[in-house]
Amino acid sequence: MRYELYYWPGIQGRGEYVRLALEEAGADYADVARERGMAAMMKMMEVSSGTPPFAPPFLKAGKLVIGQTANILLYLGSRHGLAPKAEAGKLWVHQLQLTVTDFVLEIHDTHHPLGPSLYYEDQLQPAKRRTEEFWKERVPKYLEYFEGLLESNGGFYLTGRRLTYADLSLFQIVEGLRYAFPKRMKAFERNIPGLVDLHDRIAARANIKAYLASDRRIAFNEDGIFRRYKALDL
Amino acid sequence: MRYELYYWPGIQGRGEYVRLALEEAGADYADVARERGMAAMMKMMEVSSGTPPFAPPFLKAGKLVIGQTANILLYLGSRHGLAPKAEAGKLWVHQLQLTVTDFVLEIHDTHHPLGPSLYYEDQLQPAKRRTEEFWKERVPKYLEYFEGLLESNGGFYLTGRRLTYADLSLFQIVEGLRYAFPKRMKAFERNIPGLVDLHDRIAARANIKAYLASDRRIAFNEDGIFRRYKALDL
Q: Which listed site, A42, A144, A172, A225, has its alpha carbon 20 to 30 Å from A14?
């Protein structure tokens, strides 16, 4: 089966967590809006489709249309060896992914604290204050939680000796924070040696390495979740 | 099996979505921190527990400890007739719940746009601006999406003729917005007659009605997600 991924064509954004899972799995997929344009994507979001997604990304898998990043990964995980098949392990990996999801929204809020419908330039002062709090309180809380999980099971992967889609998402988090906040992240990395090592090992995996070097990987830019704004990286 | 729900004892918060599902299902559960104090909850959050939740709420179900509100509902849904058992329907209801989850975070951000670690009083001006955008852009986008789903399948429940946990969560959204923004919500309700009707039918269900009248239902207050701040309700 050839999957169809629907996501905004110009950014990594939330679609990237799905792309990384599809690439690691070596799955066959079309990145629809990049290959065929936006109209195909917008059509799928009409109520008349029966189960319209609220927002991209969504994945078409045969007749199924699955929305919400973490839900897509829940579906893909057990099919492609990126999560346990048994209920307890499946719920645990999904729970971790939902915590990544919360963190991703907080990352987005650093440059859009007044909401997604105003421009960054119109919320610069609040963005500075939110970013301060983010690095003082939230980054340590989230990343040290994941670091603690890695440490407590010997440092291999988040949930033990097997890679899951949650590990791939943490790779993206480290990569993204390095892009958006190079100075702050450089200073912070000493607190999370396990996560940095996990990031490096994932970057070196054959399928991920090939993906990152391909033009399927969109470059970071200032329309996505992770944005490099000098005013926010002191 | 007697479930154990772990959540902050003084607020409805995110735990309320789980409580409503447990109550509708007539499930046997302990609300641990309310009944036995906070220490029992904090102990479960230590890394040494193996699968420590990042934050409350979490549910102990036999040996399983499940964190993240939507993940708990995913687990409970198929066991208590609050979601389809087949994969397609299960994923669809979960997808809707994850969209509710996103909305809940945006509701919280109206009074905490600069982040959860600062006081409301220290972010009053940003809160006013975020709340304006929230009611102008985000409430219509979210609630009219759900309204459209209700309409498109005849007005019974979100996914068709059977109640799911996502319907119970929408009851709480309507209830909460009425509490937090009585004026704004009163004006907005004319746009969402289907959701208001859904809310009323859920409030009249035997188990929910008994729950709402009991002291197990914590009253809304200004420590939860939905807060009544006059400055934000113009």
A: A144
Are B201 and B184 members of one domain?
A: yes
Record the tokens describing residue A36, joined without a space. 């065929």
Residues from chain B that touch A152, judged by Cβ atoms under 8 A, are 47-48, 50
Nearest to A5 by CA among A24, A18, A21: A18
Look at B138 and A117 and tell me if their CB atoms are within 8 Å: yes
User: What are the tens digits of pLDDT across the range B144-173?
Assistant: 999 999 999 888 999 999 999 999 999 999
> Residue B75 is part of which domain span?
3-79
pLDDT 10s digits, B92-151: 999 999 999 999 999 999 999 999 889 999 999 999 999 999 999 999 999 999 999 999
Q: Are B180 and B231 in contact (CB under 8 A)?
A: no
Choose the closest CB to A114 out of B48, B117, B129. B129
CATH number for the domain that contains residue A197: 1.20.1050.10
Contact of B216 with B19, CB cutoff 8 Å: yes
Query: Minimal Cα–Cα distance from B104 to chain A, Å?
Result: 11
User: Is B70 in the same domain as B94?
Assistant: no
pTM, entire model: 0.98
